Fold:
Amino acid sequence: MTLPEGFGATVELLRRSTVMITREGDGAGSGVIIDRGGSIATNAHVIRTSRPRVQLWDGRVFDATLRAHDRARDLALLSVEAEGLQASPIAAGPPPRPGEIVIAAGNPLGFIGAVTVGSVRGTGTLRGFGQSVWLQSDVRLAPGNSGGPLADTSGAVVGLNTMIAGRLSLAIPADTLRRFLSAAASRAMIGVTVHGLTVAVEGARRAGLLILEIAAGSPAENASLLPGDIVIGADGMPLEQVDLAAAAEAPGKVLRLQFLRGDRSRVRTATILLANPRSRAA
Structure:
């Protein structure tokens, strides 16, 4: 395997953008800092609380806020208030081709900042794993790697390491991560922190977003939404069929959210006025 010039420096930067996510003092998994404002992407199964703790490469530890959570895609977005953060960009364009070198960083079995190198085997679905698309490689993973970055030789994140299947390591591809982050950004514009779940609506199971927090002065607060409400649709369409990120970004958009409250006996509607769609309320 021939490594490019400057590979060592690339690996070090990737290590510095990788965090350990802990609960009750024990390592639970990994995550990757995706912007210097403190946003961290990880797997949903790594998160067991709405206030996880994050340890940086330099030993600093912070309480993190859960900003978005998608159990179906096994993705979560955290944020920390910290200075001097190293972030890794998310790769754009098509996934890496079979044979291309990739780097996995994480905290396997409590070894902080461990790095392993391998090559891509392919991208696609796997028998027994439903319709999910996986970036498949031969990098060696262990418990604690979940949620950590899989990067190309430039240091761009091409996937989030998630699980091992036989001799293959499986990562959620960068384009799936981008779609998740886009939807999470729309929730920030509305002014809510949410947790993904499924809920029974008129005898059918539907995707929902449980509102955990509402930002003061946000469009969501002005629309009288409350923590505990469960959003199940937008503009008359179920969440599975609507691009919430695009809807929230439309200039001057009036967004009508369908939600459940209390005993969930009826579907209610909240009218959200997005007066400044480019600003983040939370």
Notes: The first strand starts at residue 18 and ends at 23.
